[in-house]
Structures are given as structure tokens and as C-alpha cells.
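HUMAN: Please help interpret these C-alpha cells:
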Amino acid sequence: MLGRLNHVAIAVPDLEAARSTYAATLGAAVSPVEDQPDHGVRTVFVELPNTKIELLGVLGDASPIRGFLDKNPAGGIHHLCYEVADIRAARDRLVAAGLRVLGDGEPKIGAHGRPVLFLHPKDVCGTLTELEEA
């Protein structure tokens, strides 16, 4: 059911500094900063030959990243994202197996313009897991 690893998301306290680290220091190709108001985050994507790194910054007081950074002030890995061919079929299979989908269970449009869902970390080895329809 799982396809390729789409990205590893890292929450960062200073998105511009993190973007600079990846671009200037590590020599990676990075996207401009984009606001994702529906998700309460600002994003930068670092393009790698085999996957992407998503740098996540806070957008607004209700940002889910704010709570993560309160607990992890230096930042850290926030979630892993895997591609699936059919997100609704994947959701139905996982829910039938006892996994919990966060939110209302309906896919939302993610940063890449594709449907996404998040699985409860307690159900996936302690890791917040995003599924993205490929």
C-alpha cells in the first residue's frame, strides 16, 4: 500500500535561517517560503535526488507547529510522509485495521496540491505519519 517516501518534515524555530542552512551551507535546491494558511504552517521544500525535506515554520497563533516547538525549542523531525495511490482506499483499509486518522477523517489538500491525511502517532510506532495521494 505504501509508496515512496515523499518527504521528511522538520519543524524549525526560524524558517529563514533553516532555509539558508540548506541552501547556502549544504548547497541544496530549496523552494521559496510558502504560507499554508489552511494548515497553520509556513513551508520550504528542500529538493533531494530521492525525496524532499519539508521545513515547517509557525503561521499564526493556532499553528500546530507552535506546540511542537514549545516542547522542542531547537526543532526536530515532525512527521514522515508516504505516497499512496488512492488515499480514500488507504484510509478505509487503515481504519478497518484500527488506526486513527486525525481530524475529521476526510482528506485535505496539502502543500503539493494533493489530498493528504495524518495518522495518529501512537498507532504508527510513535511517528506522526502523513499519507499523500500520488
In short: The chain has a mean pLDDT of 97. DSSP finds three helices and nine strands in the chain. Helices lie at 15-25, 64-71, 87-96. The domain at 5-133 is CATH 3.10.180.10 (2,3-Dihydroxybiphenyl 1,2-Dioxygenase; domain 1).
